[in-house]
UniProtKB/TrEMBL annotation:
This is histidine kinase. It catalyses: ATP + protein L-histidine = ADP + protein N-phospho-L-histidine. One of its GO terms (biological process) is osmosensory signaling via phosphorelay pathway. Its EC number is 2.7.13.3. InterPro entries: BphY/WalK/GraS-like, CheY-like_superfamily, HATPase_C_sf, HATPase_dom, His_kinase_dom, HisK_dim/P_dom, HisK_dim/P_sf, Sig_transdc_His_kin-like_C. It comes from Cyanobacterium stanieri (strain ATCC 29140 / PCC 7202). GO terms for molecular function: ATP binding; phosphorelay response regulator activity; phosphorelay sensor kinase activity; protein kinase activator activity. Residues 10-126 form the Response regulatory domain. The modification 4-aspartylphosphate is found at D59. Keywords: ATP-binding, Kinase, Nucleotide-binding, Phosphoprotein, Transferase, Two-component regulatory system. It comes from the Bacteria. Residues 155-369 form the Histidine kinase domain. It is an enzyme of class 2 (transferase).
C-alpha cells in the first residue's frame, strides 16, 4: 500500500538559470514532489547515472551540452532511455519542436512558466509512466505464469504419453496371449481400447509438438526445399503402397529458414494432401513456386476431396476439422502447428479449395539476401 506521505514523484530539473530552477523547485515541492536541480547538462548526466529520476525537466539552451544532446545521450543508454523528458524553452528562443520529439522528448513547456501548465504536464507524464510500469509488471507476471503452465503441461503430456503407451502395450499383449480365451466381442473391445489409446497418443504428441514450436529457437540456414519435399514424398509412397500418388516436384527451390521446423511444415501439408487424395482415382500432388508482390510463394496442390472455403475460417485453429473422423482420421492440430511455424519465419499461409476439386496451400517465408542476391 502506498504511503500517503511519500513524494508523488522524483523530478530532476536542468537549467543554467538559477532563477528558473528556484521557481520550478518551489512550484513542485509545494505539491509534494521530490525535486533535484542542476545547472548544466554534464551535471545532469552525472546525477542520473547515480540515481535515475522519474521525470526530467530539461532546458534546451545551455553551454557545452545543450538539452538536445543530453536527451540523445540518455535515450541511447538502456538504463535511462525510459525516463520521460519534458523540454523547457523561452518564448523568444528558437525552439524546434520537431527536433525535440525526434531526439526523444515527450512534451515541452515554454517560459515564463505558468503554474497550472507545469503541474498538468508533469502529472500527465508521471501518470503515463506509472501506467507503463504497471503494464510491464503485469506482462512479466503473465510471462512467468505462461512459463509455469507450459512446464506443467509439458510434464503432464509426457506422463500421459508414457501411461498411454503402457495401456496400449498391455492391451495388445492380452489380445495376443489370450486370443484363444476371448470371444469375438472381447476382442473387439480390446481393439477399440487400443485404437482410441493410439489416437490419444497422437493427440498428445501433436500438442507437444505445437507447444515446442512456439519456444524453439530458430536456426536459420539456406536449404534446398525441393529435396526435402522429395525425401518426404518418397517416405509417404513407401508407407501408402495401396495408393499410387503422382508427385510433381519443381526442382532446386531454395529457402532460408529453420530446416527442422520446415520439415514439420512439409510433413503436415504433404501427409494431409496424401490423406485427402486417398479416395481419388488418380491422386496427384504438386509442389512449386511463383513470384508475386516481391515474394517467393511456395505451394502444395492436390486433387483430393477439397473443402468449402467459406466454411474453413477456423482451419488453422487447434482441433478444428472439416471432415469427420470416420471419413479421414486426424487430430486437427497439424495445420495449427504449420501456421505457427510459418509465422515464426515472419511469413504467412493461406489456401484455395473447392469441394471435390482439391486444395492448394500457399505460403512464404521471410527472405534472405546473401551478397546482395535474394534467396
Amino acid at each position: 500500500m502506498n504511503n500517503p506521505n511519500s513524494p508523488k514523484g522524483d523530478i530532476l530539473i536542468v537549467d543554467d538559470v538559477p532563477e528558473n530552477l528556484q521557481l520550478l523547485f518551489s512550484m513542485l515541492t509545494e505539491r509534494d514532489y521530490e525535486v533535484r536541480r542542476v545547472l548544466s547538462g554534464k551535471q545532469a548526466l552525472q546525477v542520473v547515472d547515480m540515481e535515475a529520476p522519474d521525470l526530467i525537466l530539461l532546458d534546451i539552451k545551455m553551454p557545452e551540452l545543450d538539452g538536445y544532446e543530453v536527451c540523445k545521450i540518455l535515450k541511447a543508454q538502456e538504463k535511462t532511455k525510459h525516463i520521460p523528458i519534458i523540454f523547457l524553452s523561452a518564448l523568444n528562443d528558437t525552439f524546434d519542436k520537431v527536433r525535440a520529439f525526434d531526439v526523444g522528448g515527450v512534451d515541452y513547456i515554454t517560459k515564463p512558466f505558468q503554474i497550472e501548465e507545469v503541474v498538468i504536464r508533469v502529472e500527465n507524464q508521471l501518470r503515463l509512466l506509472k501506467m507503463q510500469k504497471e503494464i510491464e509488471f503485469k506482462n512479466k507476471e503473465l510471462i512467468l505464469l505462461n512459463q509455469d503452465l507450459e512446464a506443467f503441461s509439458h510434464r503432464v503430456s509426457h506422463d500421459l504419453k508414457n501411461k498411454i503407451h503402457i495401456i496400449n502395450g498391455f492391451t495388445e499383449l492380452i489380445t495376443q496371449e489370450f486370443s484363444d480365451q476371448l470371444d469375438s466381442h472381447c476382442k473387439d473391445y480390446f481393439r477399440y481400447i487400443y485404437d482410441e489409446g493410439k489416437r490419444m497418443a497422437e493427440v498428445i504428441q501433436d500438442l507437444l509438438r505445437l507447444s515446442q514450436v512456439q519456444n524453439t529457437e530458430l536456426e536459420y540456414s539456406t536449404f534446398n526445399i525441393s529435396e526435402l519435399v522429395t525425401e518426404i514424398s518418397d517416405k509417404l509412397i513407401k508407407e501408402n503402397k495401396d495408393s499410387i500418388v503422382d508427385f510433381v516436384i519443381t526442382p532446386n527451390i531454395y529457402c532460408w529458414g529453420d530446416l527442422n521446423l520446415m520439415r514439420i511444415v512439409l510433413e503436415n501439408l504433404l501427409e494431409n494432401a496424401c490423406k485427402y487424395t486417398s479416395k481419388t482415382e488418380k491422386p496427384r500432388i504438386e509442389f512449386g513456386t511463383f513470384r508475386k508482390e516481391g515474394k517467393n510463394i511456395l505451394f502444395i496442390k492436390d486433387n483430393g476431396v477439397g473443402f468449402d472455403s467459406a466454411m474453413a475460417e477456423k482451419l488453422f485453429t487447434p482441433f478444428h476439422r472439416l471432415h469427420s473422423e470416420k471419413e479421414f482420421k486426424g487430430t486437427g492440430i497439424g495445420l495449427s502447428t504449420v501456421k505457427r511455424i510459418i509465422q515464426r519465419h515472419q511469413g504467412d499461409i493461406w489456401y484455395e479449395a473447392k469441394i471435390n476439386q482439391g486444395a492448394t496451400f500457399y505460403f512464404y517465408l521471410s527472405e534472405y539476401r546473401h551478397n546482395g542476391v535474394r534467396i
